[in-house]
Amino acid sequence: MNGPEVYRFAVKAVPQTIEASLAKAGLKLSDMDWLLLHQANQRIIDRVAEELEFPKDKVISNLENYGNTSAASIPLALDEAVRSGRVKKGETIMTAGYGAGLTWASTIVRWG
Questions:
Q1: Residue 32: helix, strand or coil by DSSP?
Q2: CB-based burial of residue 34 (10 Å sphere; 0-12 exposed, 13-18 middle, 19+ buried)?
């Protein structure tokens, strides 16, 4: 794996997919309570949040506790945030993942 190339890809593609999902849903980033990205690399998470001008205290990350848990990273981080009481019923979460073959996707979830 070419780490620098993955970094460049992620910090470009992830904000684009987030903006596309928001536009399709007729929402703005300011409508989101939380940002939850694939937990592969803290530098990527920080850079994407910075690029989007999203508040750091509203970015969900558990990477420092578990490392990259691959395809399970978003569901694991979400479960931990819900169980700890950070994410509450009715809040809206923007998620985005990227990975194998430089694929990517995003979704908006209203926690219920």
A1: coil
A2: buried
